[in-house]
Design brief:
This protein is mainly alpha-helical and about 100 residues long. It is about 50% helix and about 5% strand. It has a two-stranded parallel sheet with strand order 1-2. Strand 1, helix 2 and strand 2 form a beta-alpha-beta unit. It is elongated and about 45 Å long. The protein starts with 9 loop residues before the first helix and ends in a 13-residue tail after the last strand. The relative contact order is 0.20.
Length: about 100
């Protein structure tokens, strides 16, 4: 959803956070006890390079990815005593014609 804040409805905002943030929370919560018992679990959430280089008209998306980054940091602290690694790679789209 691409829009500046004045063109972003509460429904659009809530939907984006539901997919990106609440989804990560619910999936992680469903498996957290298994992760703790495993002593080598991994949690990978998807962040975005847009969080650091926010493009115009991405207010809801960038905000949701910021929330994922906060969730990841807090979860990493909570699960570190159980040797569970928590990461959120920040991927960037690139054209096959552009150098990496």
């Amino acid at each position: 959803m691409l829009a500046v804040i004045e063109d972003t409805s509460l429904e659009q905002w809530t939907n984006l956070f539901s997919i990106n943030v609440t989804g990560a929370f619910l999936v992680t919560k469903a498996f957290v006890e298994d992760l703790k018992r495993s002593s080598h679990g991994r949690v990978i959430s998807m962040s975005s390079s847009s969080y650091r280089e926010a493009p115009a008209a991405f207010v809801a998306y960038v905000s949701a990815k910021g929330a994922i980054n906060g969730f990841t940091h807090a979860l990493a602290t909570d699960l570190a005593p159980y040797d569970v690694t928590v990461n959120a790679p920040s991927l960037r789209a690139s054209s096959p014609h552009q150098p990496h």
